[in-house]
Specification:
The protein has about 375 residues and is mainly alpha-helical. It contains 19 helices and no strands. Helix 8 packs antiparallel against helix 9 and helix 13 crosses helix 14.
């Protein structure tokens, strides 16, 4: 295949390279992980234990503890049946007396699931709450959180893929012009009009990319909690079931949370207010949206005598189930909002880089505004 006379070779090669990269990028699954570095190749061959695997471990540990076995003996029993991997290493270290957040490998140590497990065990140690029951509820919560995360990823896969395809639209305009027999690349590279069109198309493409990324980030923000708020409610409920009053239960959970957890300060403030004798309605007014169910449940229990632990567990389950529904709603709204950057940035870029130079080249440069044409 020969190039048209006068067409620079470099722009053609760059265009072909860009088109190949764009196709690869579009066809790649959204959020695909990057290739591991050589230094982590050995660990990368072993997949990181997932939430379901950890939930199964926690549930089995709870089952062993329910028989009356001590915690370290239960960990040793788990280490004897788990397959080789990081969870087995965790169980062995915990059987030797190490707390989970120190026994876990560096990859697992700061994950939400291991942090939640360590916090639950710390709450049991501080309050005397039944460890088996606490861990069983934690396992159920981890499964719910996994289901909610899967539903969120599924809901946003379509809009994210659509955004990728639309971002290739301006480059597709160049290919369309060449298929129609035009010479848009030479015009864009060698004429004043073409350079203006290139600048305008590139600016509009960058604007469209930035706009779409902002929409996606706002619709699907990253999870920022080290321990999910619904798990915090479960921990407070478990502490209440040990016989502690609400103020002491909340204070124990706040002390057990990892350093820097956002919920710890709110729980400490609530515990202080309740200890000072303030009613739950006044003491919980400072709670954010994530912990608001704790305040409402406390007010309900205070005014009616309802079982606060049961009410908190119901609120925690409802919060987790609402994640999937909220993700579906946000994903549907995102699909509609993507129309704005498409219509105001990417379609004009498609016209500037594909339609206009193709029309000019097909007309033999009659519409060109500068002396750079042949």
């Amino acid at each position: 295949m020969s190039l048209p006379s006068g067409l620079p070779l470099l722009p053609v090669l760059l265009c072909l390279l860009g088109a190949g990269l764009a196709v690869t990028w579009v066809l790649a699954p959204p959020g695909a992980p990057a290739a591991p570095s050589p230094s982590s190749a050995r660990r990368a061959r072993e997949p990181l234990p997932g939430v379901l695997e950890t939930a199964r471990l926690v549930e089995q540990l709870a089952t062993v503890l329910a028989t009356g076995t001590g915690l370290r003996q239960a960990w040793a029993a788990m280490a004897s049946v788990l397959p080789d991997g990081e969870l087995r290493d965790l169980a062995r270290a915990a059987a030797a007396g190490a707390p989970p957040h120190r026994a876990a490998s560096p990859r697992l140590r700061d994950t939400e699931m291991i942090t939640s497990l360590a916090t639950a065990l710390a709450v049991c140690e501080r309050t005397g709450a039944p460890t088996a029951g606490m861990l069983q509820h934690l396992a159920d919560a981890l499964r719910d959180l996994h289901d909610a995360a899967q539903a969120r990823r599924s809901a946003f896969t379509g809009p994210r893929s659509t955004a990728r395809i639309l971002l290739v639209l301006p480059a597709a305009g160049l290919g369309l012009g060449m298929l129609l027999g035009g010479d848009p690349l030479r015009l864009l590279a060698t004429t004043p009009t073409g350079r203006l069109l290139t600048l305008a198309g590139a600016a509009l493409t960058v604007l469209g990319w930035w706009w779409m990324q902002r929409l996606i980030a706002n619709a699907d923000p990253p999870h920022r909690h080290r321990v999910d708020p619904s798990v915090v409610l479960e921990l407070v409920a478990g502490a209440l079931e040990s016989g502690l009053p609400l103020a002491h239960a909340v204070g124990a959970v706040a002390a057990a949370l990892p350093p820097g957890a956002e919920e710890a300060a709110d729980l400490e403030r609530l515990a202080g207010a309740l200890t000072a004798g303030l009613p739950a309605e006044l003491g919980s007014r400072h709670l954010g949206a994530d912990l608001a169910p704790l305040g409402r449940s406390a007010v309900l229990a205070e005014s009616t005598g309802a079982d606060l632990a049961h009410v908190l567990r119901s609120a925690a389950r409802d919060a987790r189930r609402a994640r999937a529904r909220e993700a579906e709603v946000r994903a549907a709204q995102l699909a509609v909002r993507l129309v704005l950057p498409t219509g105001l940035a990417l379609l004009p870029a498609f016209v500037a880089l594909g339609i206009v130079p193709t029309v000019i080249s097909l007309l033999g440069g009659a519409l060109s505004l500068g002396p750079g044409t042949d």
